[in-house]
User: Fold EVE domain-containing protein from Devosia ginsengisoli.
Amino acid sequence: MAYWLMKSEPDVFSFDDMMAKTKRGEPEQWHGVRNYTARNNMMEMKLGDLAFFYHSNIGKEIVGIIKVIALAHPDSTAEPNDKGKIVWQCVDVEAVKPLPKPVTLATVKATPELANLELVRLSRLSVSRVGEDEWKLICKMGGL
DNA sequence: GCCAACGTTGGC
DNA sequence: GCCAACGTTGGC
Assistant:
């Protein structure tokens, strides 16, 4: 199993929105990704993989955990390219649980063990990998 | 609101 | 295939 981190601007789609949707039994399609590295990461996701839910711009903190419940499939919001093909993909996710204590970007940056986290190293990448050790540490820091 | 980092586009 | 110009993301 692999671990990931997915960013969302909370004024567009927050972790609260995510949990409400899961409670209603609706999967969330992670649409709107228009970056090949982020897309490739999504295409590598397996069923049951876990991801941190990160609030970008507002909050700048890891607020919860989500789970992959459908493998990558064409993004229904994407326009076909000039060959009529949709190159953008998304996975479906559901909320697992919030972090009791959200972990801020400032805290992550102040933690030497997390200096290589892709969130820090590749700040513009919206879907990034998280190592197993990094995952466990952030869960602990988040009060789990 | 500014700017650094980085991805994409298009001319050559 | 290189690289300059431009656009976008996201932290500050």
Remarks:
- The mean pLDDT of chain A is 94.
- Chain A has one domain: 3-141.
- Residues 35-37, 122-125 of chain A lie near DNA strand B (CB under 10 Å from a C1').
- The domain at 3-141 of chain A is CATH 3.10.590.10 (ph1033 like fold).
